[in-house]
Write a structure and sequence with these properties.
Helices cover 27% and strands 12% of the residues. It is α/β, with parallel strands linked by helices. The chain has one domain: 3-Layer(aba) Sandwich (Rossmann fold), CATH 3.40.50. A five-stranded mixed β-sheet has the order 1-2-5-4-3, covered by helices on one side. Strands 6-7 form a two-stranded antiparallel sheet. A hairpin with a 6-residue loop joins strand 6 and strand 7. The radius of gyration is 23 Å and the shape is globular. The termini are far apart.
Length: 238
């Protein structure tokens, strides 16, 4: 994604950062205009033993702590942060992780509700013009038939979109190993959408406001005069 942004936009990005995932009660969260959250169906995690030393602490929590909930609320409501939640489905038809996330959002932001994001929302056309959400890696599990939901959901704080809920496994779609060839591929459609997401996060909210930014390439070049100036003409006389 960083390479995509560097090659196709005026945004310069890198991954030369310290640490790993940022906790919701970490002060560093309030320095970033965009945060990503993902997860697996807890039942599948347990059944496939996808936890422990290799995948994390080995503890599966179904509820945010009070400090985590307070941190998320402060980030989204008070600081104007932007959160993208992406369900890494792993063939989980009940989408338990999505339901778990939504229940926690009702706990964190009870006065704000999950609603359908219109397919003509700014997040679909602020950089790339898109007709709606692209197909994600969920087609690996469900085939190429059109998804039942041809829209994404989100939570808005005032006029600003604060949370996007993705049920299509976009994280895997951006760089995935296909089976059985084991070759790496990605979805340009998802990259375009994520570019729009980055643009939206940078131009909304109070953490990093670039709403007035004009790229150098878009500036009007002033033509320099090619001859010396002449005396001004007043009432027909010089």
């Amino acid at each position: 994604m960083t390479q995509w942004l560097n090659e196709r936009t005026e945004i310069k990005t890198d991954m030369n950062v310290e640490g790993g995932a940022v906790k919701l009660n970490d002060a560093n969260l309030f320095k970033t205009p965009l945060a990503f959250m993902t997860g697996h169906d807890p039942g599948l995690v347990r059944s496939r033993k996808m936890y422990g030393w290799k995948y994390g602490t080995g503890r599966i929590d179904g509820r945010l702590s009070e400090s985590e909930a307070a941190g998320m609320r402060r980030y989204l409501v008070e600081r104007g942060g932007f959160l993208v939640f992406d369900d890494c489905g792993v063939n989980a038809p009940m989408q338990a992780m999505v339901r778990l996330f939504l229940s926690q959002m009702r706990y964190v932001m009870p006065e704000y509700h999950v609603e359908r994001i219109s397919n003509n929302h700014e997040v679909y056309n602020n950089f790339y013009a898109m007709a709606g959400p692209p197909v994600g890696f969920d087609i690996f599990w469900w085939g190429t038939r059109p998804p039942k939901r041809n829209f994404l959901e989100g939570i808005s704080v005032g006029e600003k979109l604060a949370v996007i809920v993705v049920r299509r496994d976009y994280m895997c779609a951006m760089e995935t190993v296909s089976y059985p060839t084991r070759s790496v591929h990605y979805s340009p459609g998802v990259y375009r959408f994520m570019t729009n997401v980055v643009m939206y996060a940078l131009t909304h909210g109070s953490i990093s406001d670039y709403s007035g930014y004009v790229p150098e390439s878009a500036l009007i070049q002033t033509e320099l005069p090619t001859r010396p100036p002449t005396a001004a003409e007043v009432d027909g006389f010089e």
